[in-house]
Structure formats: structure tokens, C-alpha cells
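Hi L.,

As promised, MFS transporter:
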Amino acid sequence: MTALLTCAMAFSMMQLFLLGALGPRLVGELGISPTVLGLTTTVGFGTAAVLSPVGGRVVDRVGPRRCLVALLLTSAVALTLIGAAPGAGLLLGAVALGGLPQALANPATNKAILAAVPGPQRGPVTGMKQSGVQLGAFAAGLPLAALAGGIGWRGAVWTAAGTAVVAAVWAARRLPADPPPAAAGPGGRRSLLPRGHIAWLTVFSLFLGCGIASVNTYLALFGAQRLGLGPTAAGALVAVLGVAGVAGRVWWSKLAGRPGLGEWLPGWLAAGAVAAALMLAGAGAFHPLAWAAAAAVGVFAVSGNAVSMVLVMRRAAAGRAGLDSALVSAGFFAGFAVGPPLFGLLADAGRYGPGWLLVAAEFTAACAISTLWAARDRRATPAGAPA
């Protein structure tokens, strides 16, 4: 089940990692600008942010297995349409469709873990399945980018689409059956509002997502336009970020399960992300810094989202695990929608240095918010009580 959940997380965002890794080829072949490239991220994650609260309630009602199969099939359709896009119009429509798998991913996988994984193992399993997102980044940045050099970028995207169909069949056969769909409970619209620690994690995720999305979308283009890397080498920067993110998410998620420690981890990781963004700002003058910075973004910034999911599952209200996961994810996706267009304005002007400083400021805001929440939470928790 862990392998399946990891695979589902990889495909939930595969289309956006592919657009980032293949950005130099898309800008050249489709004639789109860096701003339009950033707009693809805005459309995809904006759709995911809007759909996430509803998706969380759907997962709570119909079960994770049905939602995970739907996630993988929808990803396959979105990737197929991206590969067929003749220009920006269909490309943006396909990316919008890809917002649905993103909206379902965290609620469905978290719900599956709560249903089938014993408490002590949930942190490591969560870290592993969250690392699926970075495995997707690695796949987009190295093997699929290399494949695009041989069969073209469309063929590489269609290869990913076919693999998503295989994964959907695998999920339908191997995941435990869902319980009968639950009846809609009381609470109505009020229950869609984040409350307490969920509200803090949602705002933290908003700023974290702004910074991560800018790096994901423009790192390869920065490598090609400012560091003189070829398309495959520029895509490898995204792959480095992906590999580091896998290791970081697994390691930090294990620590996040410890009461009293997990609440402080988001702030620490955001502080490390600030340092990574400053390294990117300096990479224009000293190119090798870009590789170290890509790894640091994976280890620190990307891992922050996995830690927040562990905290959600530890403290979710009864019957709200799917919805609470979705609300935090909605903040993260909203950040992904906002960050790249702001960075894109600077990239269009060739001002990558100020762009990376903007990313550092976004990570700094995430650090401040999470540290304030952890301090407030410690004061509110009586001595000896479970966090």
C-alpha cells in the first residue's frame, strides 16, 4: 500500500513537474513566454485550491480507494491532453483538469493511512508517500527529460500518461475496499473553514507553496538562460531537487511524529529554505551554488509540506481527517498559484536575482508563522498533556 500511495502522490503533480523540467523545450517549440509558463502553475494549483475542500469531503464520504483510482485516471487524461496541446490554450485547459488529482491526493492518501497503518508507523509511511511528489520531480527532471531528447517532449508526456493508467489498474486491484459511502453529516459550510492549528498550518503552507512553486517552475529555465546549461542538464537540476526531497521528507516525517518536537519542525525547515533561496540568488555569480541550492530546497522547503501532513493526521478532529488535510493542502496550492506569476514578471525582465530574493522572503514569512504557532501551542498545552 505504501508503494501505491507513493505512486499516487507522484502522479498527482506529475504534469506540473514535467512542465517545469521541459520548460526550455516548451518555450522554444510552442512559442510561449516565461510568464505563460508560470501561468500553467497558477491555473493548475488555483483549480486544486478551489477544489480541495470539496475533495476532502468527498474522500471522507466515499473512501480513499475510489478517489485514488479516479486520481490516477484523471492524471492520465490530463497528461494525454498536455502532450497533444498545439499551443497555450489547450495546455492551460489540461493543466486545469490536472488540479483535480492534486485536490484528492493528500486527503485520500492520508485517509488510507489512518485506516490501515498503526499509529507508530504513520509518520514514516506519511514521509514515504509524500516523497512520491519528489519522485515525480525526479522522474520529470531526469528520465522523462532525457526521453524527450530522443522521442520529443510530447512522447515523453504520453509515456507518463500510459504509466498512470497502469497505476490506476494496480490501485483498483490492490487497495483495500472502501466502506459503504457515508451519509452527509451536519456542519454545512461552517465545517469548511480551517480552525485552530489547521488554520495556522494553512497559512504556513500558503507561503511555503509560493516559494516552492517558483523554484519548481523556473529552476530549469534559470539553469538554461543564466547558467548556460543544456535542456537535459537544466532538467537535472529539478531531478536533484526531487532526490533530496525524497530523503528529506522521509527523514523529517519520522521526527515529526514526536510530540513536542514536530510542532517546531516547520519553522526550522522554513529557515533552511531561506538559506537555500539565498544560495540560488548567489548562483548567478557562482554557478555551482545552484546544485547545492536545489538539494537544499528539497531537504528543507519541500519537506515542510510532509511534516505539516503528519501534524494534520496527529491532531485531526474525528471524521475530519480528509477535510482537514484538504484545507491545509488548499493553502499550499493557493501558494503554488500565486508564487510563479510574481516570479515570472521578474524572469521576463531577466531579473532572476531579485526573484530568488522574493522566494527567500516568502520562506521567511512561512518560518515566522510556524514559529509563532509552535510557541503559542506550547503555551496553550498544559505540562504533561499530549501535544
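Confidence is low (pLDDT under 50) at residues 186-190, 383-387.

Thanks again for sending the construct details.

K.
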